[in-house]
Automatic annotation (TrEMBL):
NCBIfam families reported in the protein's UniProt record: tim
HAMAP family on file: TIM_B
SUPFAM superfamilies per the UniProt record, alphabetical: Triosephosphate isomerase (TIM)
InterPro entries: Aldolase_TIM, TIM_sf, TrioseP_Isoase_bac/euk, Triosephosphate_isomerase, Triosephosphate_isomerase_AS
GO biological process: gluconeogenesis; glyceraldehyde-3-phosphate biosynthetic process; glycerol catabolic process; glycolytic process
Entries under Pfam families matching the protein: TIM
PROSITE patterns: TIM_1, TIM_2
Entry's Gene Ontology molecular function annotations: triose-phosphate isomerase activity
Record's GO cellular component terms: cytosol
Subunit note: Homodimer.
Protein name in the entry: Triosephosphate isomerase
Family listed: Belongs to the triosephosphate isomerase family.
Length: 244
C-alpha cells in the first residue's frame, strides 16, 4: 500500500505572512499528525516562505497549478522547472481550474507530462458534476478523466490521483465514504496498490477517518479545513489512525 497522504490546498488564501505562520504552525504540531505524508499547497508567491518554514520537518510543499510549456511568452504563467526548485508536488486539473479557467483533460495531460519530466509529482484531480452524477454517469466520467489525464505517462506510480466530486467541494456536502470508495475502487486495476488515491470535498475532522477507512482511499485533499493548522493536523491524525 502507498503511504497515506494528507494534502492541504490553500487555494487563493493567505498573504505571505499568513502563509509563513500557518506553515510554521503545521510544522510545530507535526507530532500530532501521526504517520502520514503531509503536503502544503500555498499560492505560488508563498511557496518559498512555506518551504523555509517546513524545512527539515519532512513536510512536502506543492503548487496548485503550472503551465505545460517550459518557458516563453506566457505572461503570468509558471513552468515546471521554476516550481521544481521550490516544491516537490503540483496539483493539476483541479475542478476550479477546469470550471473557471478552461482547463481540459488534454491540458492536464500535457501538464502531467511536463511535471514528471521536471521531477515534480502531480496530484491529478478528477470528479463529476452534480448533473453528471444525477444522470448516472459518475463512474464513467471519472474513469474517462483519469485515462485522459494520465495518457502515456511513463510512470503511473508517480502520479497521485484525487477524486473530488465537484458537488462536494466547498459546499459542506461531502460524498459518503461508500460513494467515494465505489468510484475509486476500480480506477487502476493492477496498479491500484501503487497509485495513491485521495478523497477531496468538504473533508473535515469529523469525516476524515470514515473516508480513510475505505480500502481504496489512501488519504485526503483538504481545502477549507487546511487553513487552520489544528484542524489540518487533526485530519492527518484521523487518517493515520484509520489506516492503522
Ligand atoms: O477543493 C478541495 C481541495 O482541493 C476541497 O475543498 P473543501 O475541502 O473546501 O471542500
Amino acid at each position: 500500500m502507498p503511504r497515506s497522504i494528507v494534502a492541504g490546498n490553500w487555494k487563493m488564501n493567505t498573504t505571505l505572512d499568513e502563509a509563513a505562520t500557518l506553515a510554521s504552525e503545521v510544522a510545530e504540531g507535526l507530532a500530532e499528525a501521526g504517520s502520514v505524508e503531509l503536503i502544503l499547497c500555498p499560492p505560488y508567491i508563498s511557496l518559498a516562505v512555506v518551504r523555509r518554514a517546513v524545512n527539515g520537518s519532512g513536510i512536502h510543499v506543492g503548487a496548485q497549478n503550472m503551465h505545460y510549456e517550459a518557458s516563453g511568452a506566457f505572461t503570468g504563467e509558471v513552468s515546471a522547472a521554476m516550481l521544481r526548485s521550490l516544491c516537490h508536488y503540483v496539483i493539476l486539473g483541479h475542478s476550479e481550474r477546469r470550471q473557471l479557467f478552461g482547463e481540459t483533460d488534454e491540458t492536464v495531460n500535457r501538464k502531467v507530462h511536463a511535471a514528471q519530466d521536471a521531477g515534480l509529482r502531480p496530484i491529478v484531480c478528477v470528479g463529476e458534476t452534480l448533473a453528471q452524477r444525477e444522470e448516472g454517469g459518475a463512474a464513467d466520467v471519472v474513469e474517462g478523466q483519469v485515462l485522459a489525464c494520465v495518457a502515456d505517462v511513463h510512470d503511473i506510480t508517480d502520479v497521485v490521483v484525487a477524486y473530488e466530486p465537484v458537488w462536494a467541494i466547498g459546499t459542506g456536502r461531502a460524498a459518503t465514504p461508500e460513494i467515494a470508495e465505489e468510484i475509486m475502487r476500480d480506477l487502476f486495476g493492477d496498479d491500484g496498490d501503487s497509485v495513491p488515491l485521495l478523497y477531496g470535498g468538504s473533508v473535515n475532522v469529523g469525516n476524515a477517518a470514515a473516508f480513510a477507512a475505505q480500502p481504496s482511499i489512501n488519504g485526503a485533499l483538504v481545502g477549507g479545513a487546511s487553513l487552520q493548522a489544528d484542524q489540518f493536523l487533526q485530519i492527518a491524525a484521523e487518517v493515520a489512525g484509520a489506516k492503522g
